[in-house]
């Protein structure tokens, strides 16, 4: 239960086995491929032994695959959006497969045939859509001119000119009045909208220029009539073409609908293409000599045997050389990735550690130390049997009925585990959807609540601080433990044990003077605290070359005691949030209870569901955020640095399926 111990694996094989070897490594999903061309001292042998090794140009291949993936997605979306609605569209249902099973029946020829068919239909659809759009624009334009019963260019003569155009409604009246003063002009209004008037005028060519000047002054916009038929006849023609276009699209939609069965095949192919992309992306990290390849990577110690078995099952011993090495100190400092390995109950809580920062390879994994506290704190802040049961049932049902993506699986498992302390604290506080549990059933007295959120507020407050006190002591113990691991014994005392001594000593003083009234406790506590404070004050003096600077540092460190008081106060939020969530739930119940019976059992039911859903969401969110904050600030701050590099194995995208090499 810690950071997984890594080993460096080297695989050498004939170049012809490259794809088989990469597929095997990808299938196990637990090997990170090293970049052998990075300028690291442990990669110098590449230049020495493979000076002419070619570096794989991955961009052309990746671009081609990306284009293929994009086309596949476009095809699926096209069928989804344009297919006949009566034809059922089924997408790939997430399942668990091995990589071998995923790629077993893949046929590039069949995939290309399906994809081409759909993309051809898409092209036809787009052509029809474009034509339809053009016809619609023509229809709209011709509709405004449909009352014009002649073709303008045919109506013009040697002496006259026919002009058609639009003018704003605001200027139309004045424009017509102005033209009325010119006897050589005949004006006719064709149609009118809210903003424009469509009109034509016939004018003698001798005054055409003067009339055009008037038209320009009033903002008249000339239009050209592009058709040989009259507007009415042309409009009829356009409507017929539009109808034909609609009918063609309906027939095309039926054809597209028939492609609904391709959706799953296309999504399956996309998953395979995504896996290919991952394999191609790492090919520039290993050596490609003329006849052989050299691949290096990082693998967890526990997956080592599994990798050997799978490689030997794929290639014979004569075809591949396989070796493992412990990482050097330099590699540990520079590049060994961090992979966490914890008990299944603890593993979901790794997401909290990852959200903060992964530990460095040689650093302690804080997850198993943090988990018990997070469980208690989360449960204390939610503290409702009903909310806990809903979380538990929801998580169980989701895991039973669905194959969830891995990230979602871990998140659902996380809340499934957190449901248990939420229920337990619900019993302690006696809260079921904000309603108190009965204190007696059939004459049997029940022990609920163990702690009343209304009468035992001070007890809950003290309990919160005690939990915080214990967590801080554990954090200081881990700080000392890490220093001892590095043989920094004085730092172990200075950063860990001495602070524990001060805190425990002060608590003994409080207990002795306020609770048990025993001077022995007071003297013991005071002595422990003073001795510990002196350690903090004097150890930096021993460690520093300048005694003055060491004394100043020791005094400054001792001043840090005020920070511990603030840390302990932070834990009072456990009490505050636990009480507030239950109180809000109880207030919602009371609100609905005040409603008249008819409303209570109709609208009231919907209202109480909505209100409790809101309260549950806010309570879980608060517990999640504040629980994490207590770990990050008050706990991690005592011993944890982080900054590790995440393990990045060669794996698949798992967009539609989960890859599990153990699935046969």
UniProtKB/TrEMBL annotation:
Q: How does it sit in the membrane?
A: Multi-pass membrane protein
Q: Which InterPro entries match?
A: V-ATPase_116kDa_su
Membrane is among the record's keywords: yes
Q: Which UniProt keywords apply?
A: Coiled coil, Ion transport, Membrane, Transmembrane, Transmembrane helix, Transport
Stretches assigned to coiled coil: 85-138
Compartment(s) where it occurs, according to its Swiss-Prot or TrEMBL record: Membrane
Q: Which residues cross the membrane?
A: 373-397, 417-437, 457-480, 492-515, 521-542, 574-595, 601-625
The signal peptide, as residue positions, is none
* Keyword presence, Ion transport: yes
* Alphabetical list of PANTHER family matching this protein: V-TYPE PROTON ATPASE SUBUNIT A (PTHR11629:SF63), VACUOLAR PROTON ATPASES (PTHR11629)
Family to which this protein belongs: Belongs to the V-ATPase 116 kDa subunit family.
Protein name, entry field:
V-type sodium ATPase subunit I
Q: Mind giving the lineage of the organism this protein is from? A: Bacteria, Bacillati, Bacillota, Bacilli, Lactobacillales
């Amino acid at each position: 239960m810690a950071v997984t111990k890594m080993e460096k694996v080297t695989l050498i094989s004939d170049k012809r086995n490259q794809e088989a070897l990469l597929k095997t490594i990808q299938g196990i999903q637990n090997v990170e491929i090293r970049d052998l061309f990075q300028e690291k001292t442990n990669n110098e042998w590449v230049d020495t032994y493979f000076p002419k090794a070619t570096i794989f140009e991955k961009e052309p291949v990746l671009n081609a695959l990306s284009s293929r993936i994009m086309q596949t997605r476009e095809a699926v979306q096209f069928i989804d959006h344009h297919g006949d609605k009566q034809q059922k569209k089924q997408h790939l249902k997430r399942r668990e497969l091995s990589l071998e099973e995923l790629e077993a029946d893949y046929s590039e020829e069949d995939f290309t045939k399906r994809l081409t068919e759909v993309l051809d239909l898409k092209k036809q659809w787009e052509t029809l859509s474009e034509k339809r759009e053009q016809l619609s624009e023509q229809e709209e334009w011709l509709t405004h001119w449909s009352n014009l019963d002649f073709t303008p260019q045919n109506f013009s003569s040697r002496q006259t000119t026919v002009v058609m155009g639009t003018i704003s409604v605001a200027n139309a009246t004045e424009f017509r009045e102005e033209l009325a003063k010119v006897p050589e002009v005949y004006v006719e209004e064709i149609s009118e909208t809210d903003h424009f008037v469509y009109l034509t005028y016939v004018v003698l060519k001798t005054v055409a220029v003067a009339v055009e000047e008037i038209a320009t002054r009033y903002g008249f916009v000339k239009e050209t009539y592009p058709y040989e038929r009259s507007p009415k006849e042309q409009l009829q023609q356009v409507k017929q073409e539009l109808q034909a276009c609609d009918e063609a699209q309906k027939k095309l939609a039926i054809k597209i609908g028939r492609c609904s069965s391709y959706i799953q095949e296309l999504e399956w192919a996309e998953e395979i293409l995504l896996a290919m992309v991952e394999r191609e992306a790492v090919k520039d990290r290993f050596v490609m000599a003329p006849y052989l390849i050299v691949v290096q990577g990082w693998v967890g110690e526990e997956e080592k045997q599994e990798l050997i078995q799978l490689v030997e099952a794929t290639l014979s011993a004569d075809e591949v050389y396989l070796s493992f090495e412990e990482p050097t100190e330099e590699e540990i400092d520079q590049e060994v990735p961090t992979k966490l390995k914890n008990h299944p109950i603890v593993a979901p809580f790794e997401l909290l550690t990852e959200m903060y920062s992964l530990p460095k390879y040689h650093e302690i994994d804080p997850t198993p130390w943090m988990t018990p506290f997070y469980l208690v704190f989360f449960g204390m802040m939610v503290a409702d049997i009903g909310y806990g049961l809903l979380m538990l049932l929801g998580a169980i049902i989701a895991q039973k009925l669905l194959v969830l993506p891995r990230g979602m699986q871990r998140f659902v498992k996380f809340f499934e585990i957190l449901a248990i302390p939420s229920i337990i604290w619900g019993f302690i506080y006696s809260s079921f959807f904000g309603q108190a549990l009965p204190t007696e059933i059939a004459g049997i007295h029940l022990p609920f609540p163990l702690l009343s959120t209304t009468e035992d507020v001070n007890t809950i407050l003290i309990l919160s601080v005690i939990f915080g006190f214990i967590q801080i002591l554990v954090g200081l113990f881990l700080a000392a433990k890490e220093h001892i691991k590095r043989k920094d014994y004085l730092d172990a005392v200075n950063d860990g044990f001495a602070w524990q001594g001060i805190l425990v000593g002060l608590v003994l003083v409080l207990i002795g003077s306020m609770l048990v009234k025993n001077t022995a406790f007071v003297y013991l506590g005071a002595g422990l605290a003073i001795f510990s404070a002196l350690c903090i004050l004097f150890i930096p003096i021993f460690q520093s070359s300048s005694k003055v600077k060491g004394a100043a540092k020791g005094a400054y460190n001792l001043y840090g005691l005020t920070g511990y008081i603030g840390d302990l106060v932070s834990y009072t939020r456990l009490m505050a949030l636990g009480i507030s969530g239950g109180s809000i739930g109880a207030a919602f119940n009371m609100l609905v209870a005040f409603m008249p019976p008819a409303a209570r059992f109709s609208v009231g039911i919907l209202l109480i569901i909505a209100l409790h859903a809101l309260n549950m969401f806010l309570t879980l969110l608060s517990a999640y955020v504040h629980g994490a904050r207590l770990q990050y600030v008050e706990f991690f701050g005592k011993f944890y640095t982080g900054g590790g590099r995440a393990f990045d194995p060669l794996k698949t995208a798992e967009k539609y399926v989960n890859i599990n090499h153990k699935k046969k």
